[in-house]
Amino acid sequence: MSEPVEPTEQKEPEWKRKQRLARIFGDVLPETTKDEREPSAESGELASDRWLKSQVPPHHGG
After folding, report:
1. φ/ψ (deg, to 5) at 6
2. pTM higher than 0.90
3. CA 47, 28, 12 angle in degrees (round to 5)?
4. What would the mean pLDDT of 40-53 be, rounded to a whole number?
5. How far apart are CA 20 and CA 17, in angstroms?
6. Over pLDDT 90: what percentage of the chain?
7. Which residues, in sequence order, are CB contacts of 54 under 8 Å at separation 6+?
8. Closest by alpha carbon to 49, among 60, 38, 37, 62?
9. Model confidence at 21: pLDDT above 80
10. In the predicted model, is pLDDT for residue 56 greater than 70?
């Protein structure tokens, strides 16, 4: 039987790997944190949805 052959390709440098991943996936971290954003910018919900959610009684999990 023959011994397993190890791959001869060189390991990719860390900076090059990060550059490739950034090109594929983009910037995964937001520019601002949740506590820095305005509450209305939190989600794309409509004003009518916010009003409806604010009308839910506390005993219904609102």
Report:
1. -85, 145
2. no
3. 170
4. 75
5. 5
6. 5
7. 62
8. 62
9. yes
10. yes
